[in-house]
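Entry 14: structure prediction run for TIM-barrel fold. Input pasted below.
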Amino acid sequence: MKKIDGHLHLVRTIAGLNGKGRLNALGGGKAIWDDGTVIQLIPQGSGEDSFTAEAALQLMDGADVEKAVLLQGSLNGYQNYYSYQMVKKYPERFIAAFSVDPFADNALTIVKRQVEELGFRAIKFEISQGGGLHGYHSEKPFRLDTDAKVGEIFHYLADYPGFTVTVDYGSSDQVSYQPEVIANLAARYPLMDFVVCHLSFPSVDHLNRLKAALELFKPFSNIYTDLSAIQDIVGERDFPYPNCQKVLKVAKEILGTKRLIWGTDSPWSATFNSYDDLASWLAASGQLTDEELADVLYNNAERVYFKKSAVQAAAEADDPVLLFDEAQREDK
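Run finished. Output tokens:
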């Protein structure tokens, strides 16, 4: 069955930044934070101090994954330009979102370049306290639906119907946790698509909390959630992940399978569980019909991120904005 990895990171140069400081490469796929924490960032055999497009494609091909969505995050450091380059090099395999620190002096200038010059049609907000913006902007907790600097970005993106906004807001014990904000934004910008990463950070001990978040999303057909890294989040390594199946059951019951997107969050997640296992657990769970599997593994990511030919054309075009707008008009 065809698959799109809806949550993958390329790492040309390790440049992580979060509350632990900067992340520096050690070799052997390992890296060290400034506070001394050492992590295995890249799975064995996939790179010494980088996770290139070619390394990702090797894993994908071995697991029959046709395409992938390239996202950015503070763990690896934003890889915007490298992701753009790889979309240009492998347009049939990759589409990408960019990221920006909205509190940078030139944030809006950066956003305009990514959209108008490079042709990005998705943005990733990694706002989690544990690994994202709230970890190094803790002096000013912010909300995506009320902060003025973030608002500037959304006002600009409103000119691009079909734009995808992907958000990682961390777990419920972090100040960054704000599922209600996603519902507010989805209502405010009905022509945008919103993707909540990691199934809103589920806990099998607090399923009612997960249900409450998903019920907020349920009325809005433009809100999706990806299933990436939930094995790491619930601390599970026993395939096919019975606890992950419990939270999948809740998500299916509330949102349905047309609003769930499979992903792995590799390379880091592939150091805890093999990429092959992450690619096959949904089929092995027995919880989804073939039609539902096709939606979760492929169709939903294709619809939300790849936007048919429009985004691919924008990524390859000399005039990405013009081509995107023309393709949107043709789709209508």
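Notes: The radius of gyration is 18 Å. Will compare against the previous run tomorrow.
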